[in-house]
Write a structure and sequence with these properties.
This protein has 137 residues and is an all-alpha fold. The chain has six helices and no strands. The chain is globular, with a radius of gyration of 15 Å.
């Protein structure tokens, strides 16, 4: 398992910039990441764009000042990205999709959420209101 830094950037972009800018950011970052595997060009762009759009809608309904809420949103965003990406990637082997999500998606999502908690605490220390929602030390 590894943290998904692209999801971390896109989810925080959806918090800071709103849905349109975050969706565009997710698309551009996804295309850059897809340059490695041209046979799946656009798949990461789709997954990151969908994640950015969904998470921006989620952020508007939640209390942003809580580190647990931010970690849960990051976990959900990571799982959503993996589900969209690997649903297309494993489209002919859906039994592999479930095993992959349980074996790698959940631990990767937890790892991404933990890194996001560290980012939140650093942002709170730096008094970055856009990420912390005005939370004080």
């Amino acid at each position: 398992a590894r943290p998904d830094f692209l999801v971390l950037v896109v989810v925080y972009a959806s918090l800071v910039m709103g849905s349109r800018a975050a969706t565009i950011t997710g698309f551009v970052l996804g295309l850059a990441a897809d340059a490695e595997m041209p046979e799946y060009l656009g798949l990461n762009a789709l997954a990151l764009s969908a994640t950015a759009y969904a998470m921006s809608g989620l952020w508007s309904r939640l209390v942003r000042t809580n580190v647990l809420v931010q970690a849960l949103v990051l976990f959900a965003g990571s799982l959503m990205h993996d589900a969209v990406y690997y649903l297309v990637y494993y489209r002919n082997h859906l039994d592999l999709l479930g095993r992959f999500l349980l074996r790698f998606g959940v631990p990767g999502g937890l790892y991404t959420a933990a890194v996001g908690g560290i980012v939140f605490l650093a942002a709170r220390g730096r008094k970055w209101r856009a990420i912390t929602g005005g939370a004080h030390r």
